[in-house]
UniProtKB/TrEMBL annotation:
The gene is eda. Belongs to the KHG/KDPG aldolase family. Pathway: Carbohydrate acid metabolism; 2-dehydro-3-deoxy-D-gluconate degradation; D-glyceraldehyde 3-phosphate and pyruvate from 2-dehydro-3-deoxy-D-gluconate: step 2/2. This is 2-dehydro-3-deoxy-phosphogluconate aldolase. It is an enzyme of class 4 (lyase).
Length: 212
């Protein structure tokens, strides 16, 4: 069946934001994250190899649920769905991206940073949103303020989140999970240090969250 954004957010406390430029690393990296307890994987469309990486993970790592990040257009949504992505994450929200994701059956976690953007996503029926860039746009205090007028929205803060501040976000009742790139450091990928990736994923999975 079709995945929902809520299922994506509730699986693990952290959604890894992955930048891959080498297709031969995609499967090993995905397996390393799965071994550490994380199977919802956001592969960003920031490299020419991203779609091929999504395809490889969808084909060869059935334990993982691969999604695409940095989805900025209807064409991005169509391309990542064709490659086998099950969900999409976007840095902002437009009705066109929302419509394209509905059309191709992709769960969408759209980025918002203002009340107007939250209201626009809600007009299209979306109540699970990414807060981006979380630290730069107001951090935990912003999410506390949004808890009043937007009490029905669950957020995934992403951008500047790390092991040092993830717990503070996850303690908020309107935070279902966080996103971040710290589980897949460029140096670990360069070395092929999959054990380090697994260890970082295991550590992230120990984070507690409050949201129902
Ligand atoms: C990104 O833009 O790459 C994501 O939001 C992750 O941000 P981070 O590198 O600060 O975790």
């Amino acid at each position: 069946g079709k995945l929902t954004a809520l299922q994506v957010m509730r699986d693990a406390p952290v959604i890894p934001v992955i930048v891959l430029s080498d297709v031969s690393q995609a499967v090993s990296l995905a397996r390393a994250l799965v071994a550490g307890g994380i199977r919802m994987l956001e592969v960003t469309l920031r490299t020419p190899q991203a779609l091929a990486c999504i395809e490889a993970i969808a084909r060869d790592v059935p334990e993982a649920v691969v999604g695409a990040g940095t989805v900025r257009s209807a064409a991005d949504a169509q391309a990542c769905a064709m490659a086998g992505a099950r969900f999409a994450v976007s840095p902002g929200y437009t009705h066109a991206v929302g419509q394209a994701c509905r059309d191709v059956g992709l769960a969408l976690l759209p980025g918002v940073a203002t009340g107007s953007e939250i209201m626009m996503a809600q007009e299209d029926g979306l109540t699970e949103l990414k807060f981006f860039p979380a630290m730069q746009a107001g951090g935990p205090a912003m999410l506390k303020a949004w808890g009043g007028p937007f009490g029905d929205v669950r957020f995934c803060p992403t951008g500047g989140v790390s092991m040092a501040n993830a717990a503070e976000f996850l303690a908020l009742p309107n935070v279902a999970c966080v996103g971040g790139s710290w589980l897949t450091p460029a140096e670990a990928l360069a070395r092929g240090d999959w054990a380090q990736v697994t260890a970082l994923a295991q550590q992230a999975c120990l984070l507690q969250r409050q949201a129902a």
